[in-house]
Amino acid sequence: GQQLNQSPQSMFIQEGEDVSMNCTSSSIFNTWLWYKQDPGEGPVLLIALYKAGELTSNGRLTAQFGITRKDSFLNISASIPSDVGIYFCAGQTRTEKLVFGKGTKLTVNP
Amino acid sequence: DTGVSQDPRHKITKRGQNVTFRCDPISEHNRLYWYRQTLGQGPEFLTYFQNEAQLEKSRLLSDRFSAERPKGSFSTLEIQRTEQGDSAMYLCASSSPQWELFFGEGSRLTVL
User: Fold this and answer.
1) Distances A96 to A11, B50, B71, B99 between C-alpha atoms, Å
2) Residues from chain A contacting residue B40 (CB–CB below 8 Å)
3) What distance in Å separates residue A45's CA from the closest CA in chain B?
4) What are the φ/ψ torsions at residue A81 (nearest 5 degrees)?
5) Is B105 within 8 Å of A42 when comparing Cβ atoms?
């Protein structure tokens, strides 16, 4: 089946540093989405990407839809303590369901 | 609050009992999805509805699982004869016309 390889699995950074994480797949996706999940809560949508090559920003977050449609990255600039959480990439298939990566756990030290 | 609502948030049950979860999607969304998430993993697709029609079911959805969306609004997910391996967070999501999925806060199931 379709799988997303998300890396890194975890990151430990200092407040103020920039963060980069990415997702790759052997499959082509029509849409890439990035979510953040806090413990015990559902995932919250951060950014949605619809076209190959698209670069989209949401505040300190920037994400890109890879030109091959098989990958995406998410950057967070000037991290703050509330950025702590698990970040998931998700690719949307032609049958409209989302396939998720295993997540990147981000820890920000003040 | 007009987001996706799930009930109950937490359910503890004994093995062999039946449980039912309810999801109320965002009102203007006609697609509704169920996902399951275990510790350290991303959400895994279970099934989805467009209005009242169940369009796709994952192989993860065994015969003990059944989902309904009778009037194209709220949905229920029932698990019969629960097993310890069913312990997980059950997530519901609904999608906008742009296919962006918005998730509820989840229903956490613990089977003893």
Assistant:
1) 31, 11, 21, 7
2) 102-103
3) 7
4) -55, -35
5) yes
CA-CA distance, B106 to A79, in Å (whole number)? 27
pLDDT digit string (tens) for chain B, length 112 residues: 579 999 999 999 999 999 999 999 998 899 999 999 999 899 999 999 999 999 989 988 889 999 999 988 999 999 999 999 999 999 999 997 777 889 999 999 999 9
A3-48 confidence digits (pLDDT tens): 899 999 999 999 999 999 999 999 999 899 999 999 889 999 999 9
The order of strands in the sheet holding A61-65 is: A4-7, A19-25, A71-76, A61-65, A55-58
| Nearest chain B CA: its distance from A33 CA (Å) | 8
Q: Which residue in the set A50, A92, A95 is minimally distant from B56, CB to CB?
A: A95
Distance from C-alpha of A30 to C-alpha of A52, rounded to nearest angstrom: 8
Instruction: Report d(CA B52, CA B30) in Å as an integer.
Output: 9
